[in-house]
Amino acid sequence: FFISGFLMITTSRSLKRPMSAMSLSWIGFGLMIVGVVLAAWAMFSGNANVLYTFYVPMRAHALHYIGLTLIVVGTWFHSANHFLTWRAWRKENPGVKTPLATVAVLTTWIVWDIATIGVATEMLVLVIPWSLGLVENTNPLLARTLFWYFGHPLVYFWLLPAYTSWYTMIPKQAGGKLFSDPLARLVFMLFILFSVPVGFHHQYTDPGITEAWKGVHAAMTYAVTFPSLITAFTLMATLEYAGKKRGGKGLVGWIFRLPWGDPSFAAQVFAMIIFAAGGISGVINASYTVNLVIHNTTWVPGHFHLTVGTAATLSFMGITYWLLPYITKRRLFSRPVALAQAWTWFIGMILFGRGMHWAGLLGAPRRVPFSQAFYTQELIANTAGRGLGGFQAAMLLTAVGGTILAISGTLYFINVIGTLVTKKGSAADVDIPFAEALSGAESAPPVLDRWRVWIGGAVVLILIAYVPALISIIQASDWNAPGMIIR
User: Fold this and answer.
1) pLDDT (tens digit, 9 = 90+) per residue, 121-173?
2) I want to staple 158 with a disulfide (CB 3.0 to 4.6 A). Which of 234, 312, 387, 408 is the partner?
3) Rounded CA gap, 263 and 323, in Å?
4) 235 is a domain residue
5) What is the pLDDT of residues 179-213, one digit of tens each?
6) Cβ contacts of 305 within 8 Å, gap of 6 or more
7) 430-454 average pLDDT score
8) pLDDT of residue 381
9) pLDDT band at residue 380 using 50, 70 and 90 as cut-offs
10) Rounded distance, CA 261 to CA 84, Å?
11) What span, in angstroms and rounded, lies between the C-alpha atoms of 462 and 456?
12) Nearest Cα to 189, choosing from 301, 263, 111, 289?
């Protein structure tokens, strides 16, 4: 919901025109609300104990799957509104390069629309008919493959809105300009190209998929790290320019001149720093061989908390600190509380992520309720010789970090609720902080504004990476899983 709303405001303001089909977005919003209600009922009533990945043959109530599907369908209506708005703008501005903020938004929707084909197929063909009892059995391997066709680019649907702010808003909030508009455009085009054909790196231990195709997906996963590496250098140069423009001197002196007292800026830069660590652990996840060391251990959710749990989440929190006053025309309830929230999330996640990665290296399994698991003491004893009581100390560090994160989350909601009840009209004028660039759009090669080239390239790579493998999976695997309900 946040992503859909933030992207809508970004598109409308960057193109300087109203959205063309708000009726579509309202339909999408309604479908998403219905979907959330259905899925939430199934989960809270104990009828959907299938976790985030809902792997079959674990089976949930059909309304859980129908609800999740409605949420996805609802996003398609939002997506259509954005593309119709851009098309209307293009007709009025032939030959003009699309504003960078809109490029970022459309990239997000393109990656999402391509990715959701996989999960929609899984739901409509494999899962919903099975959960309704229309067919007796389903195919777990095919379902997992279709899920991970969707599951990894889903991460970019969360990350790319953060990138949108980092590239198009943070430079102005820092007091400077974006280092290079063309480099930013290249980054978003590369995400279109490489985001989807990477799913098998989540299935390295799955049978029925040949080593060759797993290797192809490993290579593609390494390829998708390049836009993030470009981002690291581009944003560092951007922040250095801003810091030196504000009077910073020397190799590191500019860092201290950045506006660390602005909670929106601080939260998002902290998110960038944490994301760098998450990217390093992600490269290890992508390795065909080294992945086996940390597969299904707490390392994996540790990585996930650094990327989506901070790069995206903390960025969204930071965006909220200017977006909420902008929307409501109310003063932010407390800047000191907002700044404390950013710092506590940053510190808490450093401890939490360090603990989960450490425990994972010691073999602590993920998705396990340690306080109830009968083998916990045996695991602790077996790893006790590998440092500070095995992974028990690591999990304690995780708990400390998690407690700090809970405090940070509470501070965030105090600020949001406090802002909403603040007297309307009490805020100074707040505008969307769109940034200028040192190297502007006029210096970007024309190919970076030709969507068909990049979308076409993405389709070709997806067909190469998935069609032969899917044919092999369908031929080798059976529809023989009747399903089981976890209570």
Assistant:
1) 999 999 999 999 999 999 999 999 999 999 999 999 999 999 999 999 999 99
2) 312
3) 12
4) yes
5) 999 999 999 999 999 999 999 999 999 999 999 99
6) 349, 352, 353, 356
7) 91
8) 63
9) low
10) 39
11) 10
12) 111
C-alpha distances out from residue 272 to 183, 278, 444, Å: 18, 10, 25
Task: Single out the residue of 315, 273, 295, 262 nearest to residue 104, CA to CA.
Answer: 315
Residues 6+ apart with CB under 8 A from 384: 390
- Give the domain range for residue 233: 97-476
Closest CA to 266 of 181, 188, 347, 159: 347
Among 304, 307, 350, residue whose Cα is nearest residue 163 = 307
Q: Is residue 69 part of a domain?
A: no
For residue 48, give the 3-state DSSP assignment. Answer: coil
Residue numbers annotated as active site? 152, 156, 303-305, 366-367
Instruction: Please report whether residue 421 resides in a domain.
Output: yes
Query: For 122, which DSSP code?
Result: I
CA–CA distances in Å: residue 260 to residues 175, 239, 244, 251, 435: 12, 12, 14, 18, 18
Here the CATH number for the domain that contains residue 309 is 1.20.210.10
Strand partners, 255: none
Q: What is the total count of domains within the chain? A: 1
Picking from 451, 465, 456, the residue whose alpha carbon sits closest to that of residue 189 is 451
Q: Looking at the domain assignment, is residue 326 inside a domain?
A: yes
| Token representation of residue 143 | 């379902």
- DSSP assignment of 50-93 equals STTTT-TTB---HHHHHHHHHHHHHHHHHHHHHHHHHHHHHHHS
